[in-house]
């Protein structure tokens, strides 16, 4: 297949590499010429340039730009495309993208690979990034069935675990397991940094080990992406944050009133429930 990738960063480059390994011809488009040169040198794309017109003969295009650039990119792509070309995206938010994108281009299928790392840009690309990871597709009644089947088969060939749900359900679910953790993790580090005694702060930095590394990681990733999660999934992120704040208030009350069994019960419940959130690959 002839496949286009727009935005050759962590996700776009990882997709490009894996798709090439499967024998597809991959044509990349990115904003910076230097990114395009790196993509060709590293074998991520067969050809790469800053010119969207280079994608005119492609069958499927993955838009892997930051969320804010997805719709404007589709608008700029349209004059170059043949009607049968399928467009899919990798954006971490679907409600704000899928409906307007489908209005712009009928052969659009919303997608979200649930894989990544704390780095960004082409240098962060990983081979086999999507293997055994969830990859969510978000069809709507307007989605063209054959386009959905093509994208489903392509991402399945990356050995991803494919799920299909509505954009709305996707956004509510990822608010819990992706967007809320970013905000919680960021506020955890922010609270530590607000320690007013410099000696204690210095000791905390020296003593930090695996627990802090695990809990601070997701809040220390690409700041632009975290901001866009909040901006484009605002209602669902707020819904989760309010409920999280209630939980936190409950913990504060239990500790303040020395209700140690409440704390133990909460931790025991969480200990039992956590495996349900971890895919068999973790
Ligand atoms: P990224 O590493 O920052 O890559 C995005 C790349 O797009 C940049 O390297 C940039 O390359 C290029 N770009 C930026 N603006 C552009 C534009 N207007 N037109 C064309 N190219 C542009 O970001 P990412 O982590 O791969 O995320 C990409 C998308 O995947 C986002 O929508 C994000 O929500 C989603 N996603 C991310 C993750 C994750 O964990 N990182 C996971 C799942 C989904 P240049 O160097 O050429 O400017």
Short description:
With 282 residues, the chain is of the alpha/beta class. 53% of the residues lie in helices and 12% in strands.
Beta-strand content: 5-15%
Distance between the termini: 32 Å
Strand count, sense and barrel status of the largest sheet are: 6 strands, parallel
General form: globular
Work out the count of structural domains.
2
Strand numbers in spatial order across the main sheet: 3-2-1-4-5-6
Counted by DSSP, the helix tally is 11
β-strand number: 9
CATH architecture of the largest domain: 3-Layer(aba) Sandwich
Q: Give the overall pLDDT as a whole number.
A: 97
Bound molecules: NADP nicotinamide-adenine-dinucleotide phosphate
Question: Helix content range of the residues, please?
Answer: 40-55%
What is the CATH C level class of the largest domain, in words? Alpha Beta
Explain what this protein looks like in three dimensions.
- This protein is of the alpha/beta class and 282 residues long.
- The protein folds into 2 domains: 2-165, NAD(P)-binding Rossmann-like Domain (Rossmann fold); 169-278, Orthogonal Bundle (6-phosphogluconate dehydrogenase C-terminal fold).
- The chain is 53% helix and 12% strand.
- The protein contains 11 helices and 9 strands.
- Helix 5 (145-156) links the parallel strand 8 (134-137) and strand 9 (161-164).
- Helix 9 packs across helix 10.
- The mean pLDDT is 97.
- Residues 6-12, 30-32, 35, 64-67, 69, 73, 90-92, 112-113, 116, 120-122, 222, 225 line the site of NADP nicotinamide-adenine-dinucleotide phosphate.
